[in-house]
Amino acid sequence: MIEQDRCTCCRPPGRRPSPAFGREPSAVLPETLVGCSSKSYFSLAQAQEWGPRVLAEVASDPEGATGLFCCPSFPLIPVFLETLGRGGGLVGSQDVSVYGPGAYTGEVSADLLAEMGCTFVMAGHPERRRYFGEDDELVGRKVAATAAAGRTPIIVVGEAEQSISPAKAVAQQFDAWLSGLPEGADLLVAYEPAWAIGQPQPAPADHVADAVATVRSMIAERTSGARVVYGGSAQPGTYSAVAEAAGSRQDAVPDGLFMARFGVNVDNFLSIVREVREVRARSGR
User: CB of 54 within 8 A of CB of 89?
Assistant: First the structure.
């Protein structure tokens, strides 16, 4: 007999699961965020080395591991919670079920991720939509399930093609995905135009700066607890170029970068951490 569906976004309010290890997400996200979604690149051995290397390299920084995060594949989440998470960094998941605990073979609930100590849960990535057929309704349910479990959604927004207006694409995504997000909830918005993902170069710096300013303006109408980062083939020089293109427009400078394959290499990740922190320190951010 199959249990009745229980979508976590419709769950009655109650006590949120306490993390077994890791920590509860803060009421306000760090002002600077540098993260990596490892997709399916990491082996177990690589995952075991990544967190300790990052922590060792940032140990002497005043900021330490604050604002650094990784979203590994499901089986590797405990590895990162025991290393990066215990050292002051944050850990997230690349996906989540819309259902709570129950007879849903192969699914991982937001409640379980919360109990483990995950801070972030990704939703809306173009690869999930392209390869697994996830539509706007499903993405919205995942965002709602994540928020209901007290976790912070990372929504990946942006236009599919370079000819499409970022404002139009992002407005449609916000309308479809954020209806179940409580007012004032934490949210991390990763602006990643699909046409820039997996490419040799990121989107042009002036394009990113304009899009980030647009995203900030639009998300401010929905929640005060949001941060905005850029992803999409982010690499050394990307953040500096966007900050320069933004000029005096503070709202056009992203709060950090979100990497994928480039950040799987720990030396690459650390080079981005140093760049982002240096640029933001020089500008007083």
Answer: yes
* In the predicted structure, residue 18 carries a pLDDT above the cut 60: no
- CA 152 to CA 159: how far, in whole Å? 23
> According to the per-residue pLDDT averaged within each range, which of 10-24, 219-233, 258-272 is highest?
258-272
Q: Which residues are catalytic?
A: 125, 192
Question: pTM for this one?
Answer: 0.90
How many CB atoms are located within 10 Å of the residue 41 CB? 16
DSSP state string for 149-170? TTPEEEEEE--SSTTS-HHHHH
Q: What is the pLDDT of residues 55-75, one digit of tens each?
A: 999 999 999 999 999 999 999
Alpha-carbon distance of 67 to 113, in angstroms, equals 19
Residue 107 three-state SS: coil
Residue with tokens 């050292």: 87
Buried b (16+ CB within 10 A) or exposed e, 104-142: beeebbbbbbbbbbbbbbbbbbbbbbeeeebeeebbbbb
Catalogue all structural domains in the chain, each as residue range(s) with its CATH number: 14-282 (3.20.20.70)
Q: How far is CA 193 from the centre of its chain?
A: 15
